[in-house]
Amino acid sequence: MSHRISLGLVGARGHVGAELIKLVVAHPCFELAFVSSRERDGQRLADHEPTYAGGLRYANLDPTAVAGQGVDALVLALPNGMAATFVAALDAARADPVVVDLSADYRFDDGWYYGLPELNRGVADGARRISNPGCYATAMQLALAPLRDALAGPAQCFGVSGYSGAGTGPSDKNDPDKLRDNLMPYALVDHVHEREVTRQLGHVVEFMPHVAPHFRGITLTANMHLERAFDRDEVLARFRDAYADEPLVDVLDAAPWVSRIAGRHGAEVGGFTLSADGRRLVVVSTLDNLLKGAATQALQNLNRAFGLPETMGIDT
Ligand SMILES: NC(=O)C1=CN([C@@H]2O[C@H](COP(=O)(O)OP(=O)(O)OC[C@H]3O[C@@H](n4cnc5c(N)ncnc54)[C@H](OP(=O)(O)O)[C@@H]3O)[C@@H](O)[C@H]2O)C=CC1
Ligand SMILES: CC(=O)N[C@@H](CCC(=O)OP(=O)(O)O)C(=O)O
User: Fold this and answer.
1) Which part of the chain is the Semialdehyde dehydrogenase NAD-binding domain (predicted)?
2) Which of 54, 74, 220, 257 is the most buried (most CB within 10 A)?
3) Which CATH class is domain 5-132+294-305?
């Protein structure tokens, strides 16, 4: 590609925004055109991100100003509920960058491509409005999808996230004092990712999230009731076949540990354990919520949208 692809990032101060900045700075084809933050307005990006050597400063850009930037790609890494005003401003300005929204705002909108490439690659090639899946939702789908057709009744998923999953806005879920020596259950029914996965898989999933004192990484333990008896070799073969060509999903024999996934781009799935009658299966998946659960997946989607190799700039 002869010119660099300009990329604007709204929500650049946040945990996900910071990860995406690192990835874009190191990427051979994208370049940062603007980074928007209210709190850091005017501050030099290089003072916050040591891998960035240019002169860009954070700017507090409202939706109209963002729409007027003329970027090739726009990433929204904002809290839920805020994307629509940016999308409306793009439409009003007749601006049509590739948009990747990290929030849950468009995950239930059929007009947007739900970008979990390992499961939906090729469903909407050329899509310019891309909704990035939730972090737990990615872990759940990777654990459940290979046996989707064999599920009998709802699947139950017990999730534990590092507290970076709760963002930077103050809450119990990212309060170090409240998390110390603790495991905090929350949203025990009807979490948005429960609805998201149920919709994507076309099968009822029941999800129980918890937040733990570590910073990053999710452990997701999925309990599946099966229509018929399976043996372990057959289960393992299903998972190995499903992810054989996926550089960002490793299938392990043993249950993966979250301590080994933090800071890594891919997900691990393993620990396949069957009940004696072969009709109940437990599978564990891990991923870094800020990477495969957010920024890495966004970059996979951006690469694909611009016709680049999906894992360009992602260290597999
Ligand atoms: N953290 C995670 O593990 C994951 C998060 N996500 C989703 O990604 C998005 C970003 O998450 P995360 O980085 O954790 O969130 P943070 O709370 O860490 O960051 C939020 C960002 O949005 C900006 N912001 C907040 N409020 C406003 C506002 N009213 N107007 C404009 N900008 C605002 C903040 O910057 P400033 O206040 O300086 O403007 C900040 O840059 C969320 O939708 C989240 O659900 C998805 C997958 C995983
Ligand atoms: C620990 C923690 O609080 N995690 C967040 C998940 C972050 C994420 O992926 O959320 P979105 O679907 O909002 O993008 C939560 O449960 O809301």
Assistant:
1) 6-127
2) 220
3) alpha beta
Q: What is the pLDDT of residues 228-266, one digit of tens each?
A: 999 999 999 999 999 999 999 999 999 999 999 999 999
In tens, the pLDDT along 32-75 reads 999 999 999 999 999 999 999 999 999 999 999 999 999 999 99
Ligand with an atom nearest the CA of residue 171: 2
Nearest atom of ligand 2 to the alpha carbon of 162: 1
Instruction: Give the start-to-end residue ranges of the domains of the chain.
Output: 5-132+294-305, 135-288
The atom of ligand 1 lying closest to the CA of 161 is: 3
Catalytic residue among 73, 130, 135, 284: 135
The answer to whether 5-132+294-305 and 135-288 have equal CATH topology is: no
Ligand 2: residue of 132, 136, 208, 291 to mutate (most ligand atoms within 8 A of CB) is 136
The ipTM estimated for the assembled molecules is 0.98
pLDDT in tens, 203-221: 999 999 999 999 999 999 9
Q: How far is the CA of 116 from the centre of ligand 1 (A)?
A: 20
Q: How far is the CA of 243 from the centre of ligand 1 (A)?
A: 31
Q: What is the overall mean pLDDT for the chain?
A: 97
Domain covering 135-288 in this structure, CATH number: 3.30.360.10
Instruction: Please confirm, yes or no, whether 135 is among the known catalytic residues.
Output: yes
